Amino acid sequence: MTLDHPFIDVDAIRRRPGMYIGDVADGSGLAHLIWEIVANSLDQHLAGRCSRIDVVLQHDGSALVEDDGPGIPLVDVDGRPFAEVALTRFHTTPTFDGHAPHEHVGRWGVGLFVANALSSRLTLDVRRDGFHHTQRFERGFAVSRLEKVGPSTRTGTGVSLQPDPAIFSDPWFNAGAIAARLREIAWLLPTLRLTFQDRREHVFCEPCGLAVFLERTRRMLVPVGNALFVDQLVGEIRVEAAVEWLPCRWSTVESYANIERTTDGGTHVQGLVEGLAEALRDAVPAWKARPKKKATEAVRRGLHAIVCVRLHDPTFDAPTKTRLITPEAKRAVSSAVRAAFAAVVQSDPSLLEHFTGDS
Q1: In 3-state terms, what secondary structure has residue 281?
Q2: How confident is the model at residue 352 (pLDDT cuts 50, 70, 90)?
Q3: Contacts for 358 with CB less than 8 Å, ≥ 6 apart
Q4: How far is CA 263 from CA 50, 182, 266, 303, in A?
């Protein structure tokens, strides 16, 4: 039985899957099916309604993503369950129901519909209001009604999907790549517990957040002086940063916008460097007399940092979302970092010596 609907355009997705999820041959597009489901659970976590997300690669090649949130709403939209509409129809807003905050874990952020359309089968399980409901889909179409299968003492949403071998030449998930990304998310969201299971179960929970991220990526070098940690809401933008300096000449800045890695940096990285340079000039009279360019060069030398901004409607320079261009992000990061770093640099002689360096 197929429950047809005029809004469905599954064929367009299945004819050109690369437009929606990227490469279907190298494993990245395949993993994106998981990230679309995980992103919805992350939204619930950011709204304070979910504390755990489980990802399981099952023996038959399918993947299960389950959370402990309130469960997808069971209300009707145009005479059909909300969940069914979200899984079988495109939307023109950042999320199907327009909720915020919203995170993208992969490059595209195309929603549940595309993940459903590229799966040979998908099963949705919703636990809320004391009951367990389930619905089955195949290649983007509902093949059952949303059914109440029994009582439930817990809440949450579970999605199990089987990648369609007609789309993916090698429909087996890369467990190592998925585990690495989940660990990265755990660094960025320290109050979230993530589990990943293939043949073994892995638990990723990093209460120290960016501090651990900074430590794991410093390549065995001993940092100079004290690290700087920032977690501040500036207007509607949340700014998080972990900053230290290493005894070397190069700089390394990892940057994220709404959990998505921005490999080409952008306005948040510009704001970070600008805020550090201005703080150095604020705190040290000798630097105030020097050109801004000199202060910028000084704080870049040996800089090892992670900066993450969370904002409702980020703007990127290309569909790949590798570079953030939202102007407000620069101002927010610069303001937060400048205020925090001025106090740190004044009380740390080793940092002052490092900045003076070859200047």
Answers
A1: helix
A2: confident
A3: none
A4: 28, 18, 9, 17
What is the rounded CA–CA span in Å between residue 268 and residue 213?
18
Four-point Cα dihedral 309, 312, 315, 316, nearest 10: 50
What residue type is assigned to position 203 of the chain? V
Helix (H) or strand (E) holding 18: helix 18-21
**Which pLDDT does position 103 carry in this prediction?**
52
Amino acid in position 46: L
The residue among 241, 232, 259 whose CA lies nearest residue 306 is: 241
Q: Give yes or no for a contact between 33 and 118, defined as CB atoms under 8 angstroms apart.
A: yes
pTM of the model: 0.80
CA 208/CA 231 separation, integer angstroms: 12
Sign of CA dihedral 247, 252, 256, 259: negative
Spatial neighbors of 103 by CB under 8 A, at least 6 apart, are 39, 42, 43, 46, 258, 259, 260
Count the helices and strands in the chain (H runs, E runs): 12, 16
The strand pairing partners of 261, in sequence order, are 256
Query: CA 91, CA 94: separation in Å to the nearest integer?
Result: 8
Tell me: the pLDDT tens digits for 46-85?
999 999 999 999 989 999 999 999 999 988 888 888 889 8
Looking up tokens 């004290």 gives: 226
- Per the CB < 8 A criterion, the answer to whether 202 and 61 are in contact is no
What is the Cα–Cα distance from 110 to 32, expressed in whole angstroms? 10
Alpha-carbon gap, residue 41 to 54, rounded angstroms:
10
The whole-angstrom separation of Cα 65 and Cα 55 is 5
Residue 313 CB partners (closer than 8 Å, separation 6+): 94
pLDDT digits (tens, 9 = 90+) for 103-149: 545 443 457 899 999 999 999 999 999 999 999 999 999 999 999 99
Q: How far apart are the C-alpha atoms of 255 and 185, rounded to whole Å?
A: 13
Q: Which residue has the tokens 């995980």?
A: 38
Joined tokens for residue 228: 């700087």
Domains of the chain (ranges plus CATH)?
10-204 (3.30.565.10), 210-356 (3.30.230.10)
